Each structure stands twice: as C-alpha cells, then as structure tokens.
Amino acid sequence: MGEPITVSIRREVDPERIAEATAWVQTGVNLANNYPGFLGSGWVRAGESSHVWHMLYRFANEQTLEAWEQSPERTWWLSMGEGFVRSERSRRRTGIEGWFDEPSTGSVPVPDAAASGSTSEAELVPAPPRWKQAVTIWLGFFPVNLLFAYLVAPVPGWGELPIWVRALATTVVLTPLMTYWVLPWVTRMLRGWLHRAR
Q1: Which of 31, 36, 114, 191 could form a disulfide with 109 if both were Cys (CB 3.0 to 4.6 A apart)?
Q2: Residue 84 phi, psi (nearest 5)
Q3: Tens digit of pLDDT for each residue in 80-92?
Q4: Taking Cα atoms as reference points, which of 92, 74, 86, 71 lies closest to residue 29?
Q5: Are 3 and 95 contacting, i.e. CB atoms less than 8 angstroms apart?
Q6: What is the pLDDT of residue 100?
Q7: With 90 as the cut, is the pLDDT of residue 147 above it?
Q8: Cβ distance 13 to 84 under 8 Å?
Q9: Distance, CA of 142 to chain centre
Q10: CA-CA distance, 136 to 186, in Å (whole number)?
C-alpha cells in the first residue's frame, strides 16, 4: 500500500482572528482523525502574538492521504478558513528523502491552486546531492553494523548459521534503529554540510 506520508504546512493568518483560527485548525484535525490511515498531527505557533502557524499531519500511504485531501469535509473546512488564512505553503515528505529535508522559505504556486484562485503554495526544497546522502547513510550504518557484529559474535552458534539467516537477523534489528534513531541524528549533526551551497 506504500509508505507513510507526512505533510507539513505553513499558514499565515489574520492576527485579528487568532481565536477563530485556533478553532478552525482544531476542527481540521478532528475531521482528519475520522479518516482511515490518519496517523496523527500537530500544530504550533512561533509565539503568542505570532500569525504564522506550522502544522504537520501524517497518513499511512498515498491512497489514504488522497482520500482525505479530496474529501468533501476537507473542502468545506478549507472554505471556512478563506476569510482569515492569508497564505499557505505545504510540503510532502516520504521515504528516505524526508531525512534530508531542510526548512525552506521559497515557494511556487501550485498549478491546481492557481487555477482555482487559491493562495496555496507548495515549497520546493532541493535535497542534497546523492553522494552526500550516500555518505550520510554510510556514516550511520557502518558503526551501528560494526557494533551489532561485535555484540552477536559471542552468541553460541551464530557463526554456524547460514549467511542469509545472519543477514536477515541483522537487517531486521538494524533497519528500525537506522530509520527512527540513527539517521535522523546523523542528518541533524551533518545538516550544515548536507545543505552547503553547491
């Protein structure tokens, strides 16, 4: 069915209508929560007087995300915000590319939105060169793989197992570690180098 997709949104709202915007955003979260595949969301403001809002929501795959984004409930909800949402930018992140995303301020109009007269915009965030991504993954994988090899070496019978069983066990253990902890940490540490001007 595909992999989970996270959508990040930056909205500017009318500072005179913060209370209304707060209720509106929470209504959108509540509506999305009723859709299959919804994995959660969150939203924050930079400060009490800030009119810039940041929101994330996540769906299980492309199909469930599209079902929500094309739903009549979401269309109705977006129309309720037209009076106080001044601009909107969004970005989708999925798979390994999401590890290398950098916050962006640039944006371009979305063709669908431009045709409908909406102010929605989508951010274009260039990923680092592939060779930098490969180096980053290797810098995370090599020490973790080496440590795992040292830890399992004393296990009785480990060396006698068929190589495919050892490879299976290694990848089953290390893949979640790399995905949820090691690679996010390594990319944070190397962010300046990853996104240095080419």
Answers
A1: 114
A2: -130, -5
A3: 888 777 777 777 7
A4: 74
A5: yes
A6: 54
A7: yes
A8: yes
A9: 25
A10: 7
Token output for 146: 């080496």
Q: Specify the amino acid at residue 157.
A: G
Given a cut of 60, is residue 198 above it in pLDDT? no
Distance of CA 63 to the CA centre of its chain: 16
pTM recorded for the entire structure: 0.48
Q: Contact at 8 Å (CB) between 77 and 31?
A: yes
Backbone angles phi, psi at 93, to 5 degrees: -130, 130
